[in-house]
C-alpha cells in the first residue's frame, strides 16, 4: 500500500447516525452530551494503527486545485480554520470525495496527546504528484476529466457530527464534520449547477457517510445521476448501543435529514447499513457500490475493540450486504482477498484483479452506467 499514513490510528463507531444538509456560507476562494458508559470507552492506547493513505491534500501534476477557506462556523476539532479544495474540469461530471483519517469519542481518544484522528487540515494547499484516482495523467483513470470537490477530514466524527463536546479534564472537541461537509456540498452545487453525473466517494472514515451525502446531493441537484463508491467500511454492523452513545457525543441527532424515510427513527436504529437503506429509499435512483478487502486488518481490529467477533470479517461484510438488499436497496460490491485497507488513493486501483475483473474497469463501468455484477474473492479470501 502506497501513501501510507502511519501517524493515524483510527477508531470508528460500528453503526453511526447521520447529518443533514445544513451549511455555513460566505466561503472565500484562494488559488454537552451524554458520556459513553465505562463499558464502551476505548483507550487511545488500544487503538489499532490505520494504514489508510495520507490524503492530506488532493494531488495532481497537470490540473490546478483551488483552496477554499470556509467561514468561521466551519472548523476543525481544535477550532482551527477549515479549508477544502475544488478542481474544475468537466462541469457535467463531478466527484465529491470525503477524506478518511480516524475518529475520537472519549477523553482518551480525543486528548491532545492522542493520535487516533486528524485535528487540522494539515497542509497549505500545495500539490504534488497524485496516485490512484488522483493521478490525472494516467490514461486509465476514469475520473481524469472530472471536476472534483475534495473534503479534508479533521473533526473525528466521520463527517457527520454537529456538537462541541466536553469530555472532561479540559478535553473539548468541535465535532463539526457535517457542517464542514455540507458546506462543501453546497459549494459543489453552486459551482457545477449543470452537473448530470455526480460520484460521491470516500475511503475509510470518509466512506462511512457516502450514502448520506449522496442523498443530500439529491436534495440540492435532483436531476443529476448519483453514484456512491464507498471504500473500506463494509464490515461495520448495526450495534444499537454504539449507534446511540457515540452519536450522542458527536451530536448527530442534531442533524438528521428531514426525509420521509427518517421519520420516527431513533438513535439506536440509525446504523451504517441504515445509511444505505434510508438514502436509497429517499432517492431510489442512486447507484450504490463499495469496495472492501475480505480481511481488512483495520476493520478487523475495530470489530475486536467493539466486542464483535471478526475472525471471519468477510462474513460481516457479506451479512451487511444481505441486510441492505433485504430492504430493497441494490448494493454492488467488489470484495478483494487479503488484509489491506482501502484502494482508491493507491496505484493498486489500476492493477487489482479479482476473478478476472480488473477493479479500474469495474469502476469505469459503474460510473458510466454500464452493467456490472458483484465481484467476490473465492476460497478463503485471505491471500492477496
TrEMBL record:
List GO molecular-function terms, semicolon-separated: hydrolase activity
Query: Which PROSITE patterns did the record assign?
Result: PROKAR_LIPOPROTEIN
What's the protein here called? Unannotated protein
Organism equals: freshwater metagenome
